[in-house]
Write a structure and sequence with these properties.
Blueprint (H helix, E strand, L loop, with lengths): L1 H21 L2 E10 L6 H30 L6 H11 E13 L2 E12 L6 H6 L1 H27 L2 H29 L3 H13 L5 H17 L3 H13 L11 H12 L3 H14 L5 H14 L4 H4 L11 H13 L1
Antiparallel strand pairs: 1-3, 2-3
Helix pairs in contact: 2-3, 2-6, 3-5, 5-6, 6-7, 6-8, 7-8, 8-9, 9-10, 10-11, 10-12, 11-12
């Protein structure tokens, strides 16, 4: 009887744990920024929000890791980070300015949700490369803002104003781009397209941010297998004045190359992929593999290049013998 009771308790415990993990998990995360002399309140708020988002992703990772164990899956730390960024949804945001001892501090608190019931880990791992590339772009943009924020803290006068203007614009757009990238990761490409349409139609958005908006919308179309529209947006991204310092517009070449490869337009595919390979600093193995594949199809080696020198049945290479004799005579 005692054994039966113990087994029932274990079953109830396991069932309860499964139910807890299956239910949407609410996460609260905060970030703070202490303002210095002449710091912009908007920059302070955005910096605090970025810190709160970093904390939220870390907390989401705990739930993702626990959930993966219930699915008998082993995830690496990188897997957890990539998936956490893709499944986290911000429900509410609160920014509170506080004056203490003559110093202003902004605290941003995010209420987020991780719905493990909607996580298809197997599908996510199968598409891990796509998720990771988007996550890398999101991380790179955040890193750029962090570096710019450090410059802003140290700057004075006119330089501080100029960096502040750039930083305010980047924070605002990064929040939008980050949200759209998350939608694409989650398979919600249509809402990403709708939001990016608003960015693209905003006359104040120009140059590199506009080019990136076109690129990101192209990515959404690409994930929907709407290759024609994707190519149009990638072309627009390249035609818009930009540089790759902050926004990786060069990735448009990579996806153009993949589309042309699918269409077996190998020469065009090779040109695009070669450009992406050069722009990434020869550091992306996926781009390299796609480029070499396109090159093999576009420029197959000639048959004679593979031929071995003719040899007689006795193993003597008479071609080489005659060549050596002629060389000796000429000498």
């Amino acid at each position: 009887m005692r054994k039966i009771i113990v087994m029932l308790m274990l079953l109830i415990s396991c069932f309860s744990a499964g139910m807890c993990l299956a239910a949407p998990q609410t996460i609260t995360a905060s970030g703070a920024y202490v303002m210095g002399d002449n710091d912009s309140p908007k920059i302070a708020k955005d910096a605090a929000r970025q810190e709160a988002m970093r904390v939220a992703v870390e907390k989401a990772g705990v739930y993702v890791e626990s959930y993966s164990r219930t699915q008998n899956m082993e995830l690496t730390a990188d897997d957890v980070r990539v998936i956490s960024g893709a499944v986290l949804k911000v429900l509410h945001e609160q920014a509170v300015p506080e004056l203490s001892a003559g110093i202003w501090k902004y605290t941003v608190t995010l209420t987020c949700e991780v719905d493990t019931d909607k996580i298809d880990l197997k599908a996510m791992m199968e598409n891990r490369d796509k998720l990771e590339k988007l996550q890398q772009e999101r991380d790179a943009l955040k890193k750029q803002n962090e570096e710019l924020l450090e410059k802003y803290k140290q700057a004075q006068g006119r330089e501080k104003e100029e960096i502040g203007t750039e930083l305010e614009s980047q924070y605002s757009l990064q929040a939008t781009f980050d949200r759209c990238a998350t939608m694409i990761q989650q398979g919600d490409q249509w809402n990403a397209i709708v939001e990016l349409n608003r960015v693209i139609s905003d006359v104040k958005v120009t140059d590199s941010p506009l080019a990136y908006a076109y690129y990101l919308r192209g990515r959404a179309y690409y994930e929907r297998n709407m290759d024609g529209k994707a190519l149009e947006d990638f072309d627009r991204a390249e035609a818009t004045p930009h540089n790759n310092k902050i926004y990786p517009i060069w990735r448009a070449n990579y996806y153009q190359g993949l589309i042309y490869s699918d269409r077996e337009q190998w020469e065009r595919a090779y040109v695009e992929l070669k450009q992406a390979w050069d722009d990434c600093g020869h550091s992306d193995s996926d781009i390299e593999a796609a480029m070499l594949r396109a090159k093999r199809h576009a420029y197959p080696p000639r048959e004679e290049e593979h031929r071995s020198p003719r040899r007689s049945d006795d193993g003597i290479d008479w071609g080489k013998v005659v060549s050596d004799v002629l060389i000796g005579i000429l000498r």
